[in-house]
Specification:
heterodimer, A: mainly beta, 11 strands, globular, B: mainly beta, 6-stranded mixed β-sheet, 5-stranded antiparallel β-sheet
Chain lengths: 115, 114
Amino acid sequence: NAGVTQTPKFQVLKTGQSMTLQCAQDMNHNSMYWYRQDPGMGLRLIYYSASEGTTDKGEVPNGYNVSRLNKREFSLRLESAAPSQTSVYFCASSSKGEYSNQPQHFGDGTRLSIL
Amino acid sequence: QKEVEQNSGPLSVPEGAIASLNCTYSDRVSQSFFWYRQYSGKSPELIMSIYSNGDKEDGRFTAQLNKASQYVSLLIRDSQPSDSATYLCAVRRAGGTSYGKLTFGQGTILTVHP
């Protein structure tokens, strides 16, 4: 049981390049999330998807887009990477949706550096 | 005021001592509370969840919730060097358009020294 799988694990980009971070979960969860983690700032929500076919902005959505491809997969795209987007990105998923007490399960993260 | 605030660290305790980690939150409609542990370079892993006022114990870990004071804490008894990590407090609002979203504190770094 893999849980939440993120690819790639590491990536270095040049300013202005684009890329897509991939996330897939095999726990049949409805909800999926993308976070970024910067030193001293905890985890900040970028986008989330409460269920297949829906996506919504989180706390720090600027510069990012997402696609909920199907129930399993939720991708995060940087259209024109900027050095301020250098961070560790985590994907997470949880069962049910609104009113849920279920915790979120995290992938191993993608360490992204933008030069 | 931050939505979720944790006591500033780093926190250093000797092996075998009790480590106390604190978290306050600003939104009174918060419903669910979670403690995650994150080792350096790794992803957060859930160690405790609590939904009702009072204490919840799981092995060496005890979570305490006081909704009136908007306060949640994590106690680690008989601390071990392997407990050295960053501890993240996370809070979920009740109802509305929360869709299970969590708000995280900034984390407290715990070091347990032999």
